Amino acid sequence: MNQETAVRNDRDTTSHLPNNQIKVSARKVQVYYGDTHAIKDVDVDIEDRNVTAFIGPSGCGKSTFLRCINRMNDTIPIARVEGQILIDDEDIYDKRIDPVQLRAKVGMVFQKPNPFPKSIYDNVAYGPKIHGLAKNKSELNDIVEKSLRRAALWNEVKDRLQLPGTGLSGGQQQRLCIARAIATEPEILLMDEPCSALDPIATDQVEELIRELKGNYSVVIVTHSMQQAHRVSQKTAFFHLGNLVEYDDTETIFKNPKDERTESYITGRIG
Ligand SMILES: Nc1ncnc2c1ncn2[C@@H]1O[C@H](COP(=O)(O)OP(=O)(O)OP(=O)(O)O)[C@@H](O)[C@H]1O
């Protein structure tokens, strides 16, 4: 058994451990888009097996910072990232890190559900296939079923796995995208406003899923909904004009914020 497998197995059996281990550690992170300084000197420690919410007014840099954690900003030609981001003490911007492998470990769910133009089955099987996670068809079937079950979608799609993913409802498509993201067994799940295109019932289902996922993953969610941040997260980071103004327990941020700007935002005076 290699070290990584040992760690994975350990993760599966220790979800009762306290949620205070640091998974992602960012220091002095700056992001520039050409001359625009979008993220300024951000330091943050994100805990394992917890949900962390990023909140703040439009354009404050929440999505930009989220994308630093799986190097999605690498895909934007004018974006430049400086500073250090460690995942499990490893510098993810080190030249030896393969961004494709990194993104298997750090999954992402986007604002708008974006299933591939493939069957429901193939949407979920795609990642495990390209990363060689299944030895045979039967193992692949198991991964697809397990991922759809964990995304609370299995019962709704088990009889139509060969139909196109794009034929599902918006809420089902988003849960399919979550199943696709967790099929490669990521350790961190980044969610960029995952419910913004969903109705209240689908939003409830995805929020319930986020609460369940935190047993095994470090989940980071960008949201415009303060109620949602309050409902699903244990830690909240408030961003304003590219700065991380305040980061604390969600209860503290919403009930007893220390910075005036945080208070103004959560009471609706800025936004
Ligand atoms: N691809 C890009 N090219 C150029 N500038 C960008 C790009 N993406 C974001 N920006 C700029 O970076 C800043 C932060 O944007 P970002 O999307 O990260 O903010 P946000 O807090 O997630 O906003 P919103 O809540 O509206 O989604 C803004 O000034 C934005 O215009």
CATH topology title = Rossmann fold
Give the N-to-C terminal Cα separation. 51 Å
Assign the CATH architecture.
3-Layer(aba) Sandwich
Query: What string gives the helices and strands in order?
Result: HEEEHEEHEHHHHEHEHEEHH
Q: Point out poorly predicted stretches.
A: 1-19
Bound molecules: adenosine-5'-triphosphate
Strand order of the largest sheet: 6-7-8-3-9-10
Radius of gyration: 18 Å
What structural class should be given to the helix and strand makeup?
Answer: alpha/beta
Q: Into which percent range does the helicity of residues fall?
A: 25-40%
Q: How many distinct helices?
A: 11
Number of domains: 1
Quick overview of this protein structure:
The protein has 271 residues and is α/β, with parallel strands linked by helices. The protein is 37% helix and 25% strand. It has one domain: 3-Layer(aba) Sandwich (Rossmann fold), CATH 3.40.50.
Description of the molecule:
The protein has 271 residues and is an alpha/beta fold. It has a single domain, classed as 3-Layer(aba) Sandwich (Rossmann fold). It contains 11 helices and 10 strands. The chain has a 6-stranded mixed sheet with strand order 6-7-8-3-9-10, sandwiched between helices. It has a 4-stranded antiparallel sheet with strand order 2-1-4-5, covered by helices on one side. A hairpin with a 2-residue loop joins strand 1 and strand 2. The longest helix is centred in the middle third of the chain and has 14 residues. It is globular, with a radius of gyration of 18 Å. It starts with a helix and ends in a 5-residue tail after the last helix. The N terminus is likely disordered. Adenosine-5'-triphosphate binds next to strand 2 and helix 2. Adenosine-5'-triphosphate (ATP) binds next to strand 2 and helix 2.
